[in-house]
Design brief:
This protein is α+β, with helices and mostly antiparallel strands. The protein contains one helix and nine strands, in the order βββββββαββ. 16% of the residues lie in helices and 43% in strands. The strands form two sheets. Strands 5, 6, 7, 8 and 9 form a five-stranded antiparallel β-sheet that branches. A four-stranded antiparallel β-sheet has the order 1-2-3-4, with no helix packed on it. It starts with a strand and ends in a 10-residue tail after the last strand. Keywords: Plasmid. InterPro entries: DUF6894 (IPR054189).
């Protein structure tokens, strides 16, 4: 069940291990990042989800990700970027293009590039 608690604040309650837990969306009010705090009576655990943007860089050209995606950690965002890179490269190979030189520049909401993930890093070597 969802409860609109105020402007820009959304609370969602759910059953968790037999008790009631809450997820509260805090859209930039308490943190510069779009975040979600999960409060659980099983120890008041808190989870902050950060919105990352996957900009595709190909040489001098950059295609901006305008929506972004939320992840618990930067490491999970990097893993997702590698999976997406595999899919994009597969499409390019099927279309007859060599997949070379593209990167995901993973940025925060302020546009700061946190890490660059080369598409080729998604490929396994023949020895693996």
């Amino acid at each position: 069940m969802k409860n609109k608690a105020g402007a820009g604040l959304r609370t969602e309650y759910r059953a968790c291990g037999g008790t009631l837990c809450a997820t509260i969306d805090l859209p930039g009010q308490h943190c510069p990042e779009q975040s979600t705090a999960a409060v659980c009576s099983h120890g008041l655990q808190e989870e902050i989800r950060v919105r990352y943007f996957f900009n595709i860089r190909d040489g001098e050209r950059t295609e901006k990700d305008l929506e972004g995606s939320e992840f618990d950690t930067l490491e999970l965002a990097i893993e997702d970027a590698r999976l997406a890179a595999r899919e994009i490269m597969a499409e390019h190979v099927l279309a007859g293009y060599e997949p070379d030189g593209q990167f995901f520049d993973i940025a925060d909401e302020e546009g700061r590039v946190l890490v660059s993930v080369p598409f080729r890093s998604a490929l396994r070597s023949k020895s693996q």
